[in-house]
Design brief:
Shape of chain B: elongated
Largest sheet of chain A: none
Largest interface: A-B, 63 and 65 residues
Distance between the termini of chain B: 91 Å
Mean pLDDT of chain B: 90
Oligomer: heterodimer
Strand content of chain B: under 5%
Order of helices and strands of chain B: HHHHHHEEHHH
Strand content of chain A: under 5%
Radius of gyration of chain A: 19 Å
Number of domains of chain A: 2
Helix content of chain B: 55-70%
Structural class of chain A: mainly alpha
Radius of gyration of chain B: 26 Å
Number of strands of chain B: 2
Number of helices of chain B: 9
CATH architecture of one domain in chain B: Up-down Bundle
Number of helices of chain A: 3
CATH class of one domain in chain B: Mainly Alpha
């Protein structure tokens, strides 16, 4: 029999597990839609966007961990995943720290 | 000497490429390569998300107005279609791991079906934008001459009523935008940004033309982001066609299925991009329609 690296165990979550993840994704989609129709600005301006992004990040985490098998992947893969988001965060934050300090952004009104 | 060494039988797994010492090493090498490719794809789309972030933080009302014009129902349907295709893709990989060629082929076909459905709905939406005159390129919209002899009544853009049918006049196929009621709302409730206070107004009055130009930025981003995403879907479908062919020929078995798993990673990545595009493009301004 093939001697797989134990870190690459291929059983994963089988069909019930995949269906569960699928269910979470569908609920997340419906929830995003419903929440987007409510005005949450009474909490703080832009609360709608924050909630939408929180749901999107949760859905992304589900897809990556289970459908893309990151959950069972070796450390090297985790490193690649985390590093790519780290670079993305650098791009966002360095761009915005420039734009938002030019006295014409949303936080300077 | 040790010439017997070359005659000695060495167990070699059928799916092992000669440059790797064992299956584990091969799988890890292939995976890290794919993930590095996906990392650069994240940065690729990330550039567009950065542009979105910059312009939305400057002109939130123009983005909200543009977003409300998109069909959130179709966008939501497409989200569900992609999620279903992600499930069928995950099952494709699962059955490839089990060495079940028959179900593997069925689920590849289902994945392709849902991918094609997504692109069909997208094409329908793009056509809608053409009909409504909101493709942000001059000449790429439906042309309609003004009726002869009749003067089209002009009223201030901020008195636009929601759901109001307006005569479509667009002889040159330009980007048209006549509704700036959201600017009025934000002005009355005092939440215009500094950029908006100068960006939408001319001589103290709301300028329909200046507002239209900001809304056009939203539609530029909408078309480039969804267009690039659709291009990825098309590449995904080509990949699936190849996968279908090789699965049909019986290339994969329980010991060797890395191409199936790697194609799956790509497909799920494209799904993830849409998971963010849907709320950021289709839903961002909906609450203004209900709360006010």
């Amino acid at each position: 029999m093939a001697k797989h690296d134990p870190e690459f165990e291929h059983e994963h979550i089988a069909i019930p597990g995949y269906l569960l993840v699928f269910g979470v994704l569908v609920v997340g989609t419906v929830l995003t839609y419903v929440v987007a129709l409510q005005d949450l600005d009474f909490i703080f301006p832009g609360a709608n966007t924050l909630v939408a992004l929180l749901i999107a990040f949760t859905k992304m985490a589900c897809v990556m961990l289970f459908f893309m098998h990151v959950r069972w992947s070796p450390r090297l893969i985790w490193l690649a995943v985390v590093a790519s988001f780290f670079w993305l965060a650098i791009m966002f934050s360095y761009t915005m720290q420039d734009y938002l300090t030019r006295a014409s952004g949303v936080f300077t009104q | 000497m040790s010439s017997h060494g070359s005659d000695k039988f060495v167990y070699h797994e059928p799916g092992l490429q000669h440059q790797f010492s064992d299956m584990g090493q091969q799988e890890e090498s292939v995976s890290i390569g794919m993930w590095l490719f996906l990392a650069q794809e994240i940065m690729f789309f990330g550039g567009l998300f950065t542009a979105y972030l910059v312009f939305r933080s400057k002109y939130p009302m123009a983005f909200a107005a543009g977003s409300n014009k998109l069909d959130a129902f179709l966008g939501g349907t497409n989200t569900l279609v992609l999620i279903v295709s992600s499930l069928t893709m995950a099952l494709t990989v699962y059955f490839a791991q089990k060495g079940n060629r028959h179900l593997q082929i069925i689920f590849i076909l289902l994945t392709m079906l849902f991918g094609a459905t997504f692109l069909g709905i997208k094409a329908f939406e793009y056509h809608d934008k053409y009909v409504e005159g909101i493709v942000p390129v001059q000449g790429w919209n439906r042309r309609e001459k003004a009726p002869a002899g009749e003067r089209v009544e002009q009223k201030p853009c901020w008195q636009h009523e929601r759901g109001e049918e307006e005569q479509y006049v667009n002889p040159k196929g330009e980007f048209v935008w006549t509704d700036c009621s959201l600017v009025k709302l934000a002005q009355d409730e005092n939440f215009l940004t500094t950029a908006e206070k100068s960006g939408y107004f001319q001589n103290g009055e709301i300028s329909a033309d200046k507002f239209r130009d900001k809304v056009r930025i939203f539609f530029y981003l909408y078309f480039v982001m969804t267009g690039l995403h659709a291009l990825h879907m098309i590449v995904g479908l080509v990949l699936m066609t190849w996968l279908l062919w090789t699965a049909f020929k019986g290339y994969y078995n329980a010991d060797y299925f890395m191409p199936v798993e790697m194609s799956g990673l790509y497909w799920h990545f494209v799904d993830i991009v849409w998971i963010f595009l849907f709320p950021l493009l289709y839903l961002l301004g909906r609450h203004f329609m209900h709360g006010h």
